Task: structure prediction
Amino acid sequence: MLTTLKYKNKKKSHPGTYIQWNLISLVHLETSENTYQTMRFPYRSANLIVHGFALAHAGIAALIINHGADPGVYLTILTIAMIVILARINEYPLDVTAALTLVCCLGGFFMGTKGAEWFTDYLGTSQSMAQIYTTMVVTEILGWITFFIVRRTQKKD
Result:
């Protein structure tokens, strides 16, 4: 669902500028000279998405580990959802998004298992706390890598 607002542009080079955005805060600028520019995906929205999913990963991991189960399936679903949201907001192609999701899930699994071993061996934390810390750190890393891969650059006509 797009909303359109007209505002007074102080620069005389772009007389009639419209702002459109959808519920996920992707901002489009459209000028009256039929030029089309897309602003970069706002860092604030990326911050909310990546940090929110990192907290969700940590919360789900804590809940499931405390019940004695393996959180791997749930964490994978959350990781896929985060990558797809970041990619679809930037209108990244679906086939490339699927490949990126596969690579990030495999990389996340590897970083998660090695990171939990590192937390346990070198910092002396318990196994459950090491998994919770690791899932949060790995989610942040994967989220920001995904953001920097899929962000849009400005189109110049």
Summary: The chain has four helices and four strands. The chain has a mean pLDDT of 77. The beta strands are 3-8, 16-21, 27-31, 36-38.
